[in-house]
C-alpha cells in the first residue's frame, strides 16, 4: 500500500501531532465555544505551519504535505458538487416546484403526521439502495421541509433523519454507495472475486431496518431540543401573527364557484374569511351554504404571513388586482428583479398615521404593494383599504428587492430586517423542475458524473432566471466549505503520516488470540469510528486490505471482513463531514457539529450491536 511506503518516511513526531490535531478538532467542534469556521481555519493554519517547518518528504525530496495538498480540500470535487447541488435545490425551492410533491405525500398521510413522515423517509431509503444518495437527498430536502411545515413540525427534527435513511439505504446493494464499489474494486486488486450485487443485501437490510426504526422514533426526539430553536430564530415566519388582508378574486381564480362547508372554504386552509364584499353588499360569517364565490368578490381575510403566501401561490388567480402582473410574470419590468416579502412598522411620528392605504397611495408612492395589516389585540371587520393606520401597525408588503431596500431610508416606516424573504417565482417552476430532473437523470444513469451534471444544472438555473446570482451565493454555506477543507486536510495528513495504520495495528495487536466474532465486531467499530474522521471512501481503501489480512489469519472467508468494511464505512452518522448528504442537510436543518455527534453516535452503537449479533450467526462464525 502507498500509505505504508509513505509512513516509513514519516517521523513519530509528525504522526503524533496529526493524531493530537484530530482529537483536538473533535473536541473544539463539539465544544462550540469557538465558531466552526474559526476552528476549521485554525486547523488548516496549524497543518500549513507545522509541515512547512517539519516537511514530510518523499524519495525525491518533495513535501507530500505541502500547501498544495493541505489546501486541496477547497477544490475537492465532492465539496464543489455539494455546493452546486445546493444552488440547484435552492432554485427549486424559490420557484415553489416541490409544493405538488409535498402535497401528494401529505394527502396520502392525511392528518397522521407519523404516517406522512414514514412514507417520505422510507421512499428515500428505497431509492438510495439503487441511486446515488446525494441527488436523492437533494430532491427530498425541500419536500421534507414542505412536509414539516404542513404538519406543523420543525424541519430540524427531520433533516438529519433524511440524511441518515439515505445512508442506510446505500448499505443494501453494490451500487447503493461509491464506498461499496470501492471495496469491491479493492478485492479485485487483491486478486479476489468482487462483491456480487446483492451479496450483502441481507446483512445490510437488517442494519438498515434497525437504523430506520431508530431514525423514525428516537432521532427526531433528540433533534428538536438541539436545533429547533435555531431554526425559529433564523426563520421567524412561523409566528402566529395574524394579518388583515384584502384579496380580489380574479377571473381565473380556482375559488370561483366554490361554496362554504360549515361556514368555511376548503380552498383556503388556515385562512379565516371575515367578510365578503360583493358590489355594495358585505356578507359576514357564518356564510350561507348556497353562497358561491364570483369574479370580482373582495375577500377580507385574517391569516398568518405563511398561510397568506401559500394561498396566493396555489391560486395565482386569487390575488389583489394590483399584484397580478407581478405574480403571473406579465410585467417584464417587475420580473427583472427579485420580488421580496417584508414587514414594516409605523413608528409613533409617522406621517402615515390617520390615513388609509387609498389616501396614502402606498403602492405608487413607495412602489410596494401592501398585502396585509397586523394590529395587536384588535379584530377588524372592514376592508383593508379603509383601515386608518395607527402607530405600531405592521404592514406586510411586497416589492422588487431595490424598492424594499429603499424603505430603509423612509422615516415614516421601519423595515423589520429579519422579515425580508424572497418570494417564490411560480412562473419559473416548470423550467426549474425540468432542469432539476435533467441533473438527477444524468447523474443517476451515469451518462455524466454527478459533479458535471450539478454544475451544468446550477448554471442553467441562474441563466434561466429561476434564481439570480445573489440567491445562488446565499445558497452556499461557508461553514460547509471550511469544514470540508479542514477535514480533508486532516484526513490526508492522517493517512500520509501513518496515523491511521498505527491505530489499526495497535488494536489488532491487543486483540491477538480473540475469537473471530469478537475480532470482526471490534474491526467493525474501529472502521465506523474512522469513517467519521476520514472520508468513507478513504476508509474503504485503507481498511479493506487490513480486513482481508485479518480474515486470512483467522482462516475465515475474506468476503465477511470486506462486507464489514462496507457496513462500517457507511456509518458516517456522527460527523457532518462523514458523508456528503450530512453536509447537504446541515444548512437547511440549522445544525451544529454536536447535533450530528449526539444523534449519530447512538445510531453507530446500535448498528454495531446489530452487526455483531447478526453477522457471525448469518455467516456461521463460531466462538
TrEMBL record:
Compartment list: Membrane
SUPFAM superfamilies the record matches: TrkA C-terminal domain-like
Gene Ontology annotations for the cellular component aspect, listed alphabetically: plasma membrane
MF term (GO), any: monoatomic cation transmembrane transporter activity
Entries under InterPro entries matching the protein: Cit_transptr-like_dom (IPR004680), DASS-Related_Transporters (IPR051679), RCK_C (IPR006037), RCK_C_sf (IPR036721)
Transmembrane segments: 13-31, 38-57, 77-101, 113-130, 158-177, 197-223, 427-444, 480-498, 518-548, 560-579, 599-619
RCK C-terminal domain ranges (all copies): 232-317, 328-413
Keywords of this entry: Membrane, Repeat, Transmembrane, Transmembrane helix, Transport
Highest taxon, organism lineage: Bacteria
PROSITE patterns the record matches: RCK_C
A biological-process GO annotation: potassium ion transport
Membrane topology, record value: Multi-pass membrane protein
Main location: membrane
Name used for this protein in its record: SLC13 family permease
Amino acid at each position: 500500500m502507498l500509505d505504508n511506503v509513505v509512513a516509513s518516511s514519516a517521523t513519530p513526531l509528525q504522526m503524533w501531532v496529526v493524531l493530537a490535531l484530530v482529537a483536538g478538532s473533535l473536541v473544539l467542534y463539539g465544544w462550540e465555544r469557538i465558531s466552526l469556521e474559526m476552528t476549521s481555519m485554525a486547523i488548516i493554519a496549524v497543518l500549513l505551519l507545522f509541515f512547512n517547518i517539519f516537511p514530510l518528504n518523499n524519495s525525491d525530496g518533495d513535501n507530500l504535505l505541502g500547501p498544495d495538498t493541505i489546501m486541496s480540500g477547497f477544490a475537492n470535487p465532492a465539496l464543489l458538487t455539494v455546493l452546486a447541488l445546493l444552488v440547484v435545490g435552492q432554485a427549486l425551492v424559490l420557484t415553489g416546484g416541490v409544493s405538488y410533491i409535498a402535497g401528494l405525500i401529505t394527502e396520502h398521510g392525511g392528518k397522521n403526521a407519523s404516517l406522512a413522515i414514514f412514507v417520505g423517509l422510507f421512499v428515500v431509503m428505497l431509492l438510495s439502495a439503487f441511486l446515488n444518495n446525494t441527488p436523492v437527498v437533494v430532491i427530498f430536502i425541500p419536500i421534507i421541509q414542505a412536509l414539516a411545515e404542513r404538519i406543523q413540525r420543525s424541519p430540524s427534527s427531520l433533516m438529519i433523519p433524511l440524511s441518515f435513511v439515505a445512508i442506510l439505504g446505500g448499505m443494501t446493494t453494490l451500487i447503493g454507495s461509491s464506498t461499496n464499489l470501492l471495496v469491491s474494486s479493492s478485492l479485485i486488486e487483491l486478486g479476489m472475486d468482487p462483491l456480487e450485487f446483492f451479496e450483502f443485501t441481507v446483512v445490510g437490510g437488517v442494519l438498515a431496518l434497525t437504523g430506520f426504526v431508530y431514525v423514525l422514533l428516537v432521532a427526531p426526539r433528540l433533534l428538536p431540543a438541539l436545533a429547533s430553536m435555531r431554526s425559529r430564530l433564523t426563520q421567524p415566519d412561523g409566528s402566529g401573527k395574524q394579518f388583515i388582508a384584502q384579496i380580489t378574486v380574479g377571473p381565473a381564480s380556482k375559488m370561483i364557484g366554490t361554496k362554504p362547508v360549515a361556514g368555511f372554504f376548503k380552498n383556503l386552509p388556515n385562512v379565516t374569511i371575515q367578510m365578503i364584499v360583493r358590489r355594495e353588499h358585505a356578507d359576514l360569517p357564518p356564510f350561507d351554504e348556497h353562497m358561491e364565490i364570483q369574479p370580482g368578490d373582495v375577500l377580507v381575510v385574517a391569516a398568518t404571513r405563511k398561510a397568506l403566501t401559500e394561498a396566493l401561490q396555489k391560486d395565482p388567480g386569487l390575488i389583489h388586482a394590483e399584484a397580478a402582473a407581478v405574480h403571473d410574470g406579465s410585467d417584464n419590468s417587475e420580473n427583472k428583479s427579485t420580488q421580496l416579502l417584508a414587514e414594516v412598522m409605523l413608528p409613533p411620528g409617522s406621517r402615515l398615521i390617520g390615513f388609509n392605504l387609498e389616501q396614502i397611495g402606498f403602492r405608487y408612492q413607495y412602489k410596494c404593494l401592501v398585502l396585509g395589516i397586523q394590529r395587536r389585540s384588535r379584530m377588524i371587520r372592514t376592508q383593508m383599504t379603509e383601515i386608518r393606520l395607527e402607530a405600531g401597525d405592521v404592514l406586510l408588503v411586497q416589492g422588487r428587492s431595490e424598492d424594499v431596500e429603499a424603505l430603509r431610508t423612509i422615516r415614516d416606516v421601519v423595515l423589520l430586517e429579519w422579515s425580508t424573504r424572497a418570494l417564490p417565482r411560480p412562473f419559473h417552476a416548470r423550467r426549474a423542475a425540468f432542469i432539476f430532473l435533467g441533473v438527477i437523470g444524468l447523474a443517476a444513469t451515469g451518462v455524466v458524473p454527478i459533479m458535471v451534471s450539478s454544475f451544468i444544472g446550477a448554471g442553467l438555473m441562474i441563466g434561466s432566471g429561476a434564481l439570480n446570482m445573489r440567491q445562488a451565493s446565499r445558497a452556499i454555506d461557508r461553514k460547509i466549505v471550511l469544514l470540508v477543507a479542514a477535514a480533508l486536510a486532516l484526513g490526508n495528513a492522517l493517512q500520509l503520516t501513518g496515523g491511521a495504520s498505527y491505530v489499526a495495528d495497535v488494536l489488532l495487536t491487543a486483540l491477538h488470540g480473540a475469537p473471530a466474532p469478537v475480532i470482526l465486531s471490534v474491526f467493525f467499530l474501529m472502521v465506523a469510528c474512522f469513517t467519521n474522521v476520514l472520508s468513507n471512501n478513504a476508509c474503504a481503501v485503507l481498511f479493506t486490505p487490513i480486513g482481508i489480512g485479518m480474515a486470512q489469519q483467522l482462516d475465515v472467508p475474506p468476503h465477511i471482513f470486506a462486507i464489514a468494511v462496507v457496513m462500517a464505512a457507511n456509518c458516517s452518522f456522527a460527523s457532518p463531514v462523514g458523508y456528503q448528504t450530512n453536509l447537504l442537510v446541515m444548512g437547511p436543518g440549522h445544525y451544529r457539529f454536536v447535533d450530528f455527534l449526539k444523534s449519530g453516535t447512538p445510531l453507530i452503537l446500535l448498528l454495531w450491536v446489530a452487526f455483531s449479533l447478526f453477522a457471525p450467526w448469518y455467516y456461521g462464525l463460531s466462538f
